[in-house]
Design goal:
The protein is mostly helical and 144 residues long. The chain has one domain. Helix 4 crosses helix 7. The two termini are 21 Å apart.
Length: 144
């Protein structure tokens, strides 16, 4: 299960439930996907998962983007820029940034963090349908 302090921090934010990702699944164990599965079963859940492609880049295939190289040491930064040609590193992301949670988490992160049998089942179904979700990381500086 998730750390209680993490759940309290997020759920105490006044905009918590206005965020689309928390409507789908939240740290309290609820959300549209969880309710859909519990009330209507796997077939209805599969349909809902297909609808999620609009919340991902290229319908779930993801995109590659260039990431700035961060370093507090200017010498290391200069070395990194020389190695990469000054362009930064490239990585893939799937879940659109504007649909991420307060800490930059995707729906998959929430499912894994909640760690219930239902959340794990939904996480597996998400990954089967959209394998590029595996490349997503928390996009908050505190979690790098």
């Amino acid at each position: 299960m998730i750390e209680p302090s993490f759940q309290i921090t997020i759920s105490s934010d006044p905009n918590y439930m206005q965020n689309d990702v928390y409507k789908l699944a939240n740290y309290s164990g609820g959300g549209l996907l969880i309710d859909c599965y519990r009330k209507r079963g796997e077939k209805a859940l599969r349909k809902k998962i297909i609808e999620l492609k609009q919340l991902m880049y290229y319908n779930g295939d993801g995109i590659s983007f260039r990431e700035e190289l961060f370093s507090s040491d200017s010498m290391n930064k200069a070395k990194n820029e020389r190695k990469s040609g000054g362009r930064g590193s490239t990585r893939k992301i799937c879940w659109k940034m504007q649909y991420r949670g307060l800490y930059g988490e995707s729906l998959l992160h929430i499912m894994i963090s909640c760690n219930s049998e239902t959340h794990t089942l939904i996480a597996k179904k998400l990954l089967r349908k959209y394998p590029a979700l595996v490349f997503d990381i928390f996009e908050n500086e505190e979690y790098y």
